[in-house]
Amino acid sequence: MRNLINFLIRYSVMILFLFLEAISFALVVNNRDYQKSVFLSSSNTLVANMYEASNSVVEFFKLKAANENLAEENTALKNEIIALHNQLATLMPQKKDSIRFRIPPEMEFTYISAKVTNNSTNRLQNYITLNKGRRDGVRVDMGVISDEGVVGIVKTVSDKYSVVIPVLNEKLKINCKFKKNNYSGPLEWTGEDYRFARLDDIARHVEFSLGDTLITSGYANNLPEGIPVGTIDNFKIKESDAYYNIKVKLAVNFRTLSYVKIIDYKNYKEQKAVEQKAAED
Fold this sequence. Notes:
Elements: H1 2-10, H2 12-31, H3 33-91, E1 109-119, E2 128-130, E3 143-145, E4 150-157, E5 162-166, E6 173-178, E7 184-188, E8 196-199, E9 213-216, E10 228-236, E11 245-250, E12 259-265, H4 268-280
Antiparallel strand pairs: 1-2, 1-12, 2-5, 3-4, 3-12, 4-5, 6-7, 6-9, 7-8, 8-11, 9-10, 10-11
Helix pairs in contact: 2-3
């Protein structure tokens, strides 16, 4: 109490000044129409700005949940499109002596939506962690894509999480092909720039141009054919070389990667088993 009294005595002049200023301001605003309109207009503007700032903060925190919902809805719609496409194909009229159409086994897949929880792009061996795991149906060797293109392959899985070995890892090679002529080769990251990779085994007789699109070849049992991989950014070849040195700009921006789709290939086990049996014989 003594400290409060000492404070009031010490700053009594300043407190009296502010009190009189407030009274003067109130009298001017209440008794002068112009000043009153200016005050009301300014106060409304201030309140509106405060509400706008408050709404922006609220919307920012709601944005994460909204993005997750959109990713889930987008994945659900893609699964419905695949199912409808396959169903439509089976209902197409067939010739009298033809075999009834069946869905190709490589087209029997669905997507599992997942969010990136950890990601690296500046190492020779980068990895991506996703918030979906074994309980969500994720298995080792599943392909992973985004709306932009190929991301990588699932390497390890726990109950709630999975780790992906992405294109930005020297241990992973993605078999891709030119969209316009089907010539294929392995795509490999050189560890220099997260935006680019190298395409190997393209012979000098193959015709292509800058900007040509690369897509997945479909030869792997975890990535369907036709998913964007990148575009030709640069290439060169010496007179003595049999193969081109090709620089590819990747379709996916791994620095901004937030949501992905894991490919659940329904016939993976069967294809894997028959290939292993053939290798053993």
